[in-house]
């Protein structure tokens, strides 16, 4: 494909999205800041290497055995994330636009294509952990080979070509950042299955929550513009911006805490069917949910598996690793509900939400659907977002695992309602 305008091309991945908290300050678009081709080549190269190095920084504490494991079908091995993000550059940038480029290995497109039907056949998602070869070292060599080719391409491409391809490069960078978050969520799930509870980083700490101001923020009835409006980077699912009727509604300024969740548990929340959606109670019963994901009761005290290993549950910390089904049941138990994504966005634009970003993604009650007028881009990258717009729920904000510079007020994350291995939490709302 030949990318067009940045607003037309940019795309988000189901296989989305650690240790720096993210802010909502998105980076300016690489393609919109300068018309100087030398400067653009330099900026593309710098941005590319910064993101590529962050992936390797996150993988560095993990042994080849750690990088091999796939602890459930929804989670992918670290080694696969490192290779798949590399394939993305090879497939969509080098293979299409670098004259004379030779792929690193003829089988890697089959092994490391995720879900792009248009890009050809691919290995089964739930068997990624079965692939012991290439080794983690060979994947490292693959990454270095592609890195060198991309940097060479930036150096040698014409100014017109670079300008035309800058939006595609931004998609590649943001795609890799989404996988950086998944590297943390997936290895935490794997380590949580291990009875000796390994730590990714013994010095890691759960981010401190903010509590200030009134507990409830009032949004009066009004018509608001929601969705992405400017030329900064965004995925296609954030557009078109449009007007929406919001309020009157009250939204919690703070995230739901572990202490509040313990009250729900002690009140029999997990056993009271009338609090739950039918599918939710079926999932909770089948999976024997009695507490948020990764909680373990040890000698009568609750502990939680974290990136630093097993730690005591901090009552003041935001609850994390809860599914939509649990969030919805908790809201019903509280006499409240979950906000819609539009209510969340309007409140976040007003700057009134504590910890909107950087700790836990917040479930909304909004189905992941196209905005009015949404059309997926043509070509393989049109598969990035549009084909997932059914049966999933939108989460807003960002998490402790989201890379720096990857968060936006209009960002729409999405997962199935039973998923709880992401860093997902709860913010409540209610109508008077
Ligand atoms: Fe991907």
UniProtKB/TrEMBL annotation:
Region (Disordered): 20-40, 57-76
NCBIfam families: egtB_TIGR03440
Protein encoded by which gene: egtB
Associated pathway: Amino-acid biosynthesis; ergothioneine biosynthesis
Annotated protein name in UniProt: Ergothioneine biosynthesis protein EgtB
Highest taxon above the source species: Bacteria
Transmembrane intervals: none
Keyword line: Iron, Oxidoreductase
Polar residues compositional bias, start-end: 20-37
Sequence ranges assigned to domain Sulfatase-modifying factor enzyme-like in this UniProt record: 214-353
UniProt organism field: Bradyrhizobium vignae
Record-annotated DinB-like domain positions: 48-182
Keyword Oxidoreductase attributed: yes
């Amino acid at each position: 494909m030949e990318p067009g305008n940045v607003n037309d091309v940019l795309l988000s991945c189901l296989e989305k999205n650690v240790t720096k908290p993210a802010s909502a300050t998105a980076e300016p678009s690489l393609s919109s800041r300068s018309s100087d081709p030398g400067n653009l080549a330099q900026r593309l190269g710098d941005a590319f290497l910064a993101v590529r190095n962050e992936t390797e920084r996150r993988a560095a504490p993990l042994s080849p055995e750690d990088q091999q494991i796939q602890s459930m079908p929804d989670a992918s091995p670290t080694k696969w994330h490192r290779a798949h993000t590399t394939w993305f550059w090879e497939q969509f940038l080098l293979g299409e636009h670098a004259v004379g480029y030779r792929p690193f290995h003829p089988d890697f497109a089959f092994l490391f294509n995720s879900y792009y039907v248009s890009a050809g056949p691919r290995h089964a998602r739930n068997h990624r952990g079965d692939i012991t070869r290439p080794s983690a070292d060979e994947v490292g060599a693959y990454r270095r080979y592609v890195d060198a080719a991309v940097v060479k391409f930036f150096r040698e491409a014409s100014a017109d070509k670079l300008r035309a391809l800058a939006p595609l490069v931004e998609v590649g960078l943001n795609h890799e950042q989404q996988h950086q978050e998944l590297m943390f969520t997936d290895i935490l799930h794997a380590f949580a299955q291990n009875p000796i509870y390994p730590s990714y980083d013994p010095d890691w700490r759960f981010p401190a929550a903010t509590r200030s101001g009134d507990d409830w923020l009032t949004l009066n009835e009004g018509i608001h513009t929601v969705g992405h409006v400017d030329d900064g980077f965004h995925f296609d699912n954030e557009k078109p911006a449009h007007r929406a009727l919001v309020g009157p509604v009250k939204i919690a300024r703070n995230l739901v805490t572990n202490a509040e969740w313990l009250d729900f548990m002690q009140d029999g929340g997990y056993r009271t069917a009338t609090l739950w959606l039918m599918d939710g109670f079926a999932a909770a019963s089948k999976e024997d949910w009695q507490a948020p994901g990764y909680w373990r009761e040890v000698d009568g005290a609750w502990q939680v598996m974290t990136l630093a290993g097993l730690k005591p549950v901090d009552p003041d910390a935001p609850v994390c690793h809860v599914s939509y089904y649990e969030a919805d049941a908790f809201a019903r138990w509280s006499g409240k509900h979950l906000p819609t994504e539009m209510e969340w966005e309007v409140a976040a634009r007003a700057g009134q939400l504590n910890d909107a970003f950087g700790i836990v993604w917040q479930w909304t009650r909004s189905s992941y659907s196209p905005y009015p007028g949404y059309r997926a881009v043509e070509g393989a990258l049109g598969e990035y977002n549009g084909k997932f717009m059914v049966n999933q729920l939108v989460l807003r904000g960002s998490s402790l695992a989201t890379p720096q510079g990857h968060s936006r007020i209009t960002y729409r994350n999405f997962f199935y309602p039973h998923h709880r291995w992401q860093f997902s939490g709860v913010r409540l709302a209610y109508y008077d």
